[in-house]
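Board notes (copied after class):
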Amino acid sequence: MRTTIGYTLESIGYVIGAQGVVGFASRTFFGTEWGWLHKVVDFPSAAYLGVVAVGLALVAGGVRTRKAAERVRSR
């Protein structure tokens, strides 16, 4: 079960992180809106970097959860 939760957190983290990167790049370099996050909330450009950080934290948490489950299973 922890392995499934780890993969799920990791996958969600990748999607959120990608939306943060796309949102930051589109507003900063092109002056447009890309992705779907801007349809839900109206963030300033710098706040998208926080979204990237949240995505990275979810990825790291998912990997740690998944690896902990693998360690327990290998005992």
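Comment from the instructor: The first helix runs from residue 2 to 30. The mean pLDDT is 90.
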